[in-house]
Amino acid sequence: MSSKKKKHKRHGKQQTRAHAPAAKINQALQPEKAKNPPARQPAAGNRSAAAARIDWFSNLNQETEHTVMTRNVSKIYHLGEETVHALDDVSVTIDRGEYISIMGPSGSGKTTLFNIVGALLKPNEGNVFIDEVDVAQLDANELAWLRCRKIGYIFQSYNIVKVFTALENVTLPMLFAGVPPDEAQDRAINILERVGLGDRILHTPKELSGGQQQRVAIARAFANRPAIILADEPTANLDLHTGEEIIHLMKEMNREQGVTVICATHDHKMLDISDRIIWMEDGRVKKIANRDEVKIDIAEMREK
Amino acid sequence: MIRKTSQAEWEIGELALKPGLVLSMAFSSLKIRLTRTFLTVLTITTASGFMMYLLTMPRSDDPVDRDGWLLMLGLCLLVCAAGVMNTMLMSVAQRYREIGTMKCLGALDSFVLFSVIAESAIIGAVGSIAGIILGLLITTLIGAAEYGSGMFSYLRFDGMTVKILIVICVGMSLTAMGASIPAWIASKMPPMDAMRGEK
Question: Which chain A residues have a beta carbon less than 8 Å from that of B195?
Fold first, then answer.
């Protein structure tokens, strides 16, 4: 924790220095923001599920479906007397089926954005919409349902339940979702075969390599057929070759199932297959680039 | 809540707590930490054995003596509860990451809460049953040594069903109570903090 705190502290100081110009860049680089009118703000204090219906989607551009949308999201950490802006007025829109990479140096707010989009953290300001539902209006049970059915998480350190077999790990989210055990098992076997672990379904994580464990994690993330896959540096603990395999597997699953993949990463291998890349710096979106602009962008980034 | 989007309609559902899943989670957790489970069971066994012994041995005529035994029993149960709490705190602390992961997968707070309490209650049940057997054994042995063949007229082997139920109830509620604080801590932990392995 202490190292994490320090990081935030450092970038908090930088941020106060470069506040105004960065905000301008942020706005200039976001055509999406202008395209969609801002969502109607929900009434404060009215948090019941029924009241959460916001009829703002009729205002939307009907051509695309926005799987994830953040509106002016800010996250502030109070560390003693210091206030740290981990995220400052971030608005991004991500469409269905896109493969997005979020890049940026450590402490740039990548992970915070990732956690807020994943409904794991609450922003101090702004709204997060997942499949066009405002996350802030959901109660604890509905949030659990959202995490269970709409979002699949893939982590840097795999986070497979160590004492369960690969099969049990993939079955677990389906059992949480209320799938009958037999059906859950059949589906889990299918998914494990799909990720190339058909012969290892009864192995525990101890008996699996890092790459194989990450495959189990991918299978688990896809188990409930989510709308979004959130991957937090999924290849950081893997060697080059295995990392590439994992990246391609994620891309294939993204294409096959039409799942939106959002991936926080340092890995430049990831750029080739991303539809769009979001660069973050000091808690703000510095730049959003399409794949065809990527090569230039890398050159630009290197110059700086 | 039903949301219509431009392409699909979907509904935010409710997740139900599944008692079967809670129990299997509790059992697997106990199985993994078998040595420590065994030690905790042993403390419950000792305490409930002592309780059973007091319930079946002839009642002392001396009220001071009787109070002394009750005080000892109370202390014994208190130490036991503290031990269980310590064990469960350890068990939860070891699993912060696991609990956080499961919350990301859709585990409800109540799932985490009840699986920790169930884990502890199972320890309580097994421990008290073993304690009942131990207590009765000791009573019989001491009775046989002191009173010989006429021991059954002295020993209070009447109303055994009630006595057994009392011991099991005390054992299970003791462990469940000891686990309640750790279980609460675990269930209220935000998933992200749990993933980092902090409190």
Answer: 155, 159
- B106/A148 CB distance under 8 A: yes
* pLDDT above 90: percentage of residues in chain B: 44
**A120 has a chain B CB within 8 A of its CB:** yes
ipTM: 0.77
Q: Give me the number of domains chain B comprises.
A: 1
Selection from A115, A116, A139, A169 nearest residue B15 by Cα: A139
Cα Rg of chain B (Å, integer): 22
Residues A145, B14: C-beta atoms closer than 8 Å: yes
Enumerate the residues of chain A whose CB falls inside 8 A of the CB of residue B190: 120-121
Identify whether B173 is part of a domain.
yes
Which of A145, A168, A222 would best serve as a mutation to test chain B binding (most B beta carbons within 10 A)?
A145
Judge whether B98 lies within some domain.
yes
Q: How many CB pairs under 8 A join A and B?
A: 106
CA distance A192 to chain B (A): 17
Cβ contact B106–A224 (<8 Å): yes
Question: Could you say which DSSP state residue A263 is in?
Answer: E
Query: Does residue B4 sit within a domain?
Result: no
> A73-118: per-residue pLDDT in tens?
999 888 888 888 889 889 999 998 999 999 888 888 888 888 899 8
Q: Given an 8 Å threshold on Cβ–Cβ distance, is A144 in contact with B18? A: no
pLDDT, tens digit, 9 for 90 and up, residues B99-146:
888 999 989 999 999 999 999 999 999 999 999 999 999 999 998 888
Range of the domain at B105: 20-195
Q: Tokens 């609450």 appear where?
A: A122
In the block, which residue shows the tokens 């990451």? B97
Which among A1, A144, A178 has CB closest to B198?
A: A1
Cβ–Cβ < 8 Å for A224, A173: yes
Q: Burial-class residue A24 by CB neighbours within 10 Å (0-12, 13-18, 19+).
A: exposed
Residue B13 within a domain: no
B28-31 long-range contacts, CB within 8 A, separation 24+: B28/A163, B28/A164, B29/A163, B29/B91, B29/B95, B29/B115, B29/B119, B30/B119, B30/B122, B30/B123
